[in-house]
Amino acid sequence: MAEVYFDNLIIQSPKASGDEQVVKSALIGLSDHLTGDAILEEEEITNFLINLRENLNDVNFDEFSTEAGLFIASHAQDFGPLYTIEHRNNADNVRYDDLPDVSKAYVDLGVWMLTQGLTTENANSATGISFVEHTQWPGALIEGAKRIENGRADIRAEYVRDPGYLMGGMRQSPEQELAAYLYRPTGFYAPAGEVVSITVDESWVNSGLHIRVGAHADNHSKLASTSRFPVLNADYRIDAAIDWMVTHNFRNGNPIGYDPTTDFQPIETSYQTRGHAKYIDLAAIFNTWDVLDDIYRQYYEEDLASGQPANTQVGVSHDEFLSKGSHAIDCNLASLFHFWGIHPSESVENELAELPTCDGAFERIIHYLDNALRNNVELTAFHAEKTAVEEGQLKFQIYDNLLVNFDEEEGQ
Questions:
Q1: Which residues contact 56 (CB under 8 A, 6 or more apart)?
Q2: Closest Cα partner for 29 from 1, 66, 71?
Q3: Nearest Cα to 103, choosing from 39, 189, 156, 33?
Q4: Cα separation of 240 and 368, whole Å?
C-alpha cells in the first residue's frame, strides 16, 4: 500500500445562492459601526464579515447598492485609502490578512463588485460610488477634466499583435486563438464613480470581443500583499444570446425560468444578461433608449394617478407588459421577447398579431440564430474563451452538464 502526501488539498462543492437581505444587513451593521451609530464588538464585526462573504454568490447588486455605497463611503471617511503609494516599492505593500475585519469586508465587497457584481444591467446602481484608493493608483482625473459625449474610438478588432507593443496581462505566444488576448486602448478614461455607456457595431456581438474598463488586468487578491487595490478593472464580454441559447429551456421552447437539468436555483433570473438583453435589443433596433421611456411612462403615469409608489408595479405580468408595451410603441414585441423566453398567452398573441412587426427585430433574431452553437466543439471553444478571461463567468452548474452532453442534436 502506497502512502500519498498532499501539500495543499482543496475540496470544492457547488456554492449556494446568497441572500441579498443578509448582505444588506451586514452592510448596514458595518456602516453603523463606522459612523458610531452602533458600535460593534469584534466578534460581531467578524460575523458580519462571514455573512457578507457567504452571501455574495449569485446576488443582484441592485438590491443593496444604497447600503454598499454608504458602507464604502463610511470606510473611506474612517480609514482613508487602505493602499497608498509612497515609496513605489514593496515597502508600500499591505497584507490582506493584517487588515481589520471591517476593512476585509470593504476589500471583499469591492473585489466582488468589479469581478462579478457589476453588470451591464445594474451598473447604473453604482453611480456615485468610488473607492478612495483610486486616488493613489492608477490616479484620479484632474478636477474639471472635460467630459466627452458621443466620443468615437476606431480600433483594430482582431487578434494581431503589433511588434514591440505589450500591455499588462496580454498573452504573447498563444497555441490557439482562445488562449490569447490583447488590448486595444480607446484613449478614453472612465472617471471613478461614473457610468459609461458604450455602443458597438452589431457585428461585434458574440464575436469574442470584450470591453475592459481599466487596463490593469492582474488580480492582486491572489497575492499575499499588494500596494494597490486588488482589482482595477471590470470586464464585459460583448454577448448575450449564446449563454441563453445553449440552455435547456431555450432549446426546448420553454419560457425563461428554472432549469430542470440542475438543482441549482435560481438560474435564469431577471437581473442576469439573459434576463435584460431584450431591453438592449429593443433600444438597439429603435436606435434610442427613449423607446423604453415610452413603455415605462405608462406605469409612471398610472402611479401618479393612483397615488401609489412606483414599486407597486413589480408584479406586472408578462402579458400586461407585452400588451401595453406593444401598443405604446405601435409594434408587436411578441417575437423579440419570445426569443428571450418571454412567451405571451394565446389571447395576447392574437391581440398583438394586429400590430405591425417591430422593424429590425426579425433580423436581430436571425443574427443570433446564425451565431448559435451547433456542436460540442463550438460549445467547448465558447466555454474556453469565456473562462480564459475570468473564471466563474459561466455557471458550472449548467456547463458541467452541457460540456458532456451537448452534441449536434442538442445544438439543433
A1: 18, 23, 108, 109, 112, 116, 117
A2: 71
A3: 33
A4: 9
